[in-house]
Amino acid sequence: MTTDTPELAANLSALRDALADFDIDENPRSVQQKSRDFYWYSPILKDMLKDVCADLVIAPRSEAEVIEILRLCHAHDVPVTVRGAGTGNYGQAMPLAGGVLLHMRHMTEILTLEPGRLVAQPGAIMKTMEAAARDKGLELRLFPSTTATATIAGFIAGGSSGIGAIRWGGLRTPGNILRLRLVTMEAEPRIVELTGEDIFKAAHAYGVNGVITEVEVPVDPAEDWVEALIGTRDFAAATRLSFAIGRAEGIVKRMVSTFEPEIPERFFNRYTEFTVKGEAAVAVIVTRDSLEALEALVAADPETTMRFRSDRDLGERRLVSLYEYAWNHTTLRARKVDPSITYLQMMLPQDDIYGVMERLKTDFGDEIVLHHEFTQFSGKVAAVTLPLLRYSSDARIEEVIALLEADYGITVFNPHRVTLEEGGMKKTDPAQLEFKRQTDPKGLLNPGKMIAWTDPDWVPEPGRAFLFNH
Q1: CB of 444 closer than 8 Å to CB of 74
Q2: Which tens digit of pLDDT belongs to each residue from 147-183?
Q3: Whole-model pTM?
Q4: Under DSSP, is residue 312 helix (H, G, I), strand (E, B) or coil?
Q5: How far apart are CA 267 and CA 193, in angstroms?
């Protein structure tokens, strides 16, 4: 899928000479590795993107170097794709048109950390940010399950939610991102600072309309968190308990996740002694002061059992956090056991969630294994569903998605697509498109990820992927 034309080759040759003083990687093996993310979660993307590779990788050391690199790439008509740790799953940071991969591995500093705010360079690792914040009695609001390696700009440019969403909502909730600073892709690159609603011109935009060089996010007083794993008689009971926990004003929570029995039985490898065959599971992170209220909810159902509490049962065990079994880490854990498993991302109708869950199990059996993550939308608790899907063929994935949307009232955020619109929005975003026209007039930033740039009037076609160069 990379574009290897004589014109681009000549432009790249001239660009290499102009960039001689920068940190450039042209080793074929490492360039290929840095050109990839976790796209292989999807068998469709695994085949579609297998040949995608940058021509060279450049790692800027400062914002001034970012400006100069973008100026030179613009002058030589060479596309640029920005990446951080590469923990995304949809090819967000894979260079579909080749060219330069801008790797932010040098720009990792925390610039400001004080009550209420943390300012960091784009390549700052989120686990490092959280540790630095906690050293000052503070903590991040939101982070992905990949926080050990994920970068803050990668999370904001490619993510939408994560651990903390049950308390704070997702990244689009006002106040969860305070400011973005970015560099434009023009003949003379500009610095643009975005606040308020303007942030969403660049947040969750895969880097198509500016290179983020600074991020400001809120930090709050740190809580004393305790992790717990709860067993229930079935998945419906787990879901009811999760809604009750999510809505309980006396329980301060950071994560509420719900799993069908197969998931803890087969894929919770470090926690197998705390799981029981046939039980669904609820994994939660709550404050120590909330434990009494949580235990009361558990005790209200005689078929529900507190199987693990980190303050009580950890002992000498070295266990990873339960959040590394939640969100999209659930898929990763499952694939390590059974590589044929893939996944979906979807929202069930909340007013009939139990009826739809029952229909899904009746109609699909173990082809779909349900897993909910609980979040806040406009102050209301909601379940976002990230089910495991047993793969049989690409055609079957497309058929299942079409059935779910047409017959069950389910909204599917398709993780088997590479563009912004197909994966989540289902339509073009006029504000992001106009901002791209202002910040990247040649369309050189991460080409192929924004359908609106190529086809502003695009509408989705079931079963058909949009490929910008086909």
Answers
A1: yes
A2: 999 999 999 999 889 999 999 999 999 999 999 999 9
A3: 0.93
A4: helix
A5: 43
